Amino acid sequence: MVLDQQRSKRKETGARYKRQHSKRKEALGRTPTLTKVDKDRAVSKIRTRGGSEKIRLLRSNVANVYDSKAKKYLKAKIEMVVENPANRHYVRRNIMTKGTVIKTDKGNARITSRPGQDGVINAVLV
Q1: Which domain holds residue 53?
Q2: Domain total for the chain?
Q3: Are 2 and 24 in contact, with CB atoms under 8 Å apart?
């Protein structure tokens, strides 16, 4: 099944819109990556519109953490997901998205990158 990001064929009332066209490449949607806490595993690059590329990160247990007091980046081991504003059920499943608070060996940190699209986990100590 193709995920579609265009307007619904039906109005809020249930009536149909008059002019419709078939599914197009520009309205393509993809299934979410749902990056988990585990040993590293990256998926091959995905070509996007305009020839750009996305690297999908399926699993990772290492994050680049920025310490604002020392003004340095540290490589920290991820232990677990503490809080996820995207979906409260992601905490139980250890799924990481942007804005997720993770517990590391350096302390709690908030993820600032998009692991499912950047292919790396960058975070800032909280």
Answers
A1: 37-125
A2: 1
A3: no
Q: What's the token pair of residue 110?
A: 């908030």
Write down the residue that tokens 């520009």 correspond to. 26
In the numeric block, the tokens 């996007």 are attached to: 48
Residues 6+ positions from 91 with CB-CB distance below 8 Å = 81, 82, 83, 84
Q: What is the C-alpha separation between 89 and 62, in angstroms, rounded? A: 22
Q: Which two tokens stand for residue 48?
A: 């996007």
Q: What is the pLDDT of residues 17-30, one digit of tens each?
A: 998 888 888 888 88
Model confidence over 64-92: pLDDT tens digits?
Answer: 999 999 999 999 999 999 999 999 999 99
Question: Residue 72: which CATH number?
Answer: 3.10.290.70
Q: Which amino acid is at 11?
A: K
Instruction: Check residue 114 and report its DSSP letter.
Output: -
End-to-end CA distance of the chain: 40
Helix or strand holding residue 76 (H, E) = strand 72-83
Tokens of 50: 């305009």
**Tokens for 44?**
């091959």
